Amino acid sequence: MTRRLLALSLLLALAACVRNPLTGKRQFSLVSTQEEISIGQQAAKDVQQSIGLLPNPQVQEYVARVGKELAAKSERPELPWSFQVLDDPTVNAFALPGGPIFITRGILTHMNSEAELAAVLGHEIGHVTARHSADQITRAQVAQLGLGLGSVLSPDLAKYGELASAGLGLMLLKYGRNAETQSDELGLRYMLDARYDPREMLDLFRMLSRVQEGQEGGRLPTWLATHPNPGDRLNETQKRIAGLGGVDLSTLRTEQVPYLRLLQGVPYGENPRQGFFQGTRFFHPELRFQLDFPAGWKTANQTQAVLGVSPKQDALLGLALAGNVPPEQALRQFLTQQGVQPLPVATEGLPPQASYFQANTEQGAVQGLTAFFSHGGTTYQLLGYTAAGQLPAYDPAFRATFTSFRELTDPAMLGVQPARLELVTLPEAMTLERFHARYPSTAPLEEVALINGVTPGDTLPAGQLVKRVVGGALPTPR
Ligand SMILES: [Zn+2]
To answer: How far is the CA of 174 from the centre of ligand 1 (A)?
Structure first.
């Protein structure tokens, strides 16, 4: 309680009245521009670490070039803007305070022109220039203080708690409807100033509507979790474009071909090389291991950890990378953290560097089991914990997961590859159905239609670049 109050007063001390660059009005904000930038940079590091960037310099440079050109047309060109593509299959984009903007490879693979990309980036730039992100982070901080999320004493536990719940929470907060409308307007203006055809923004909204109908899974929630009603926004944008008297839209650029060529070979959907579940069993081909989770638990594969949460959400199990510290030293460091005490319970049958423990957190005392061990030259940590008193109930599940860790040796599992996009230049006009029969995809026809921005039954013209999805089938475990 005292810690919370202290944190709140520190925040209030930082409070400043900042002039809104768009309206010129001074508005109450908890963060100055410098604070806004440093909060954003810190959050950007967390995002990069927990989700990971797409390892494709060509794609990263392309997106950054388009983003920087648009940001230069904005009201805050002096901000340290950055535009990066996350290696995540969900259809998403978001802005952090002070300039970092992230889009996923999932949204990239669903778009069909540079102008559509400009529509997404322009909208996100709008959130930053109008300081929506700064206001949002302010609310996120206050919410965090109120709920005590991710504020467990032990840094190790905090790391897990954060990954499990609050870590990316700041992206989940919705901006108000007015903020969304304002960002759409701003995005449209930046697009026009950079000579992109604003009608491509309509294609973006159409795609988002269709994604909403067939929600796909992924590590991140989709853009639709924070941006509802793409249909309404499409209508509003249509009216705005109709009101652009005197602009000859046909002279503006869409840059379809260079954009589509960029997508050649880009992974599509989940990348199983970063780990995947088959039932309750988790396989990680790159790190060469497998691990079983209890049946019925909700699981999540993060960059730094793979986690399971009990059906009642009162116990957490996970495996995380613990770095280059030898297991003995890592266990000692874990048990000597402030607020953590080892419990004298026997650990036979578990790895040699294992211990039961109790830890005091702001949510109360927790009890659990941890083990550190070496695999492939890296130290790993297994951790299971629950509220004090519940440990006897969860101990068998913790032990079953801890002892299920195995080296992955099945060559079929080790060699698994993601599905990828392949671009086909049509030798003649054909229907989408004919395209799908002649150039088969490992994705169904409806999905091929969606990612190409067409509908089944449409005829595609000769010379058109069309996406197909190749590879990505998962082997059945032996
Ligand atoms: Zn938005």
So the answer is: 8
What's the pLDDT tens digit per position in 52-85? 899 999 999 999 999 999 999 999 999 999 999 9
What is d(CA 127, CA 103) in angstroms, rounded to the nearest whole number? 14
How many other C-beta atoms can be found within 10 angstroms of the C-beta atom of residue 411?
Answer: 9
> What are the residues whose beta carbons fall under 8 Å from the beta carbon of 27, sequence distance 6 or more?
17, 18, 19, 20, 131
Which residues have a catalytic role annotated? Answer: 124
Q: Rounded to an integer, what distance in angstroms lies between the CA atom of residue 443 and that of residue 425?
A: 19
Closest C-alpha among 354, 273, 315 to residue 164: 315
Which of 57, 473, 459, 59 lies closest to 264 in space, CA to CA? 59
Put residue 171 in one of left, alpha, beta given phi > 0 → left and psi -120 to 50 → alpha. Answer: alpha
214 contacts: CB under 8 Å, gap ≥ 6: 446, 447, 450
Give the tokens for residue 433. 């159905």
> Which of the 8 DSSP states describes residue 73?
T
Q: How far is the CA of 214 from the centre of ligand 1 (A)?
A: 21
Amino acid letter, 389: G
Backbone angles phi and psi of 91, in degrees to 5: -90, 100
Calculate how far, in angstroms, residue 227's C-alpha sits from the geometric centre of ligand 1. 6
3-state secondary structure of 248: coil
Q: From ligand 1's centre to the CA of 432, what distance in Å? A: 32
pTM for the model stands at 0.78
| 128 in Cβ contact with 99 (< 8 Å) | yes
| Token pair recorded at residue 159 | 């790391």
CATH architecture of structural domain 272-413: 3-Layer(aba) Sandwich (3.40)
If you measure from the C-alpha of residue 123 to the centroid of ligand 1, how many angstroms do you get, rounded to a whole number?
A: 6
Express each pLDDT in 83-141 by its tens digit. Answer: 999 998 888 888 888 999 999 999 999 999 999 999 999 999 999 999 886 766 655 55
Beta bridge partners, 319, equal 306, 382
Domain ranges of the chain: 2-262, 272-413, 418-470
Phi/psi at 297 (nearest 5 deg)? -80, 150
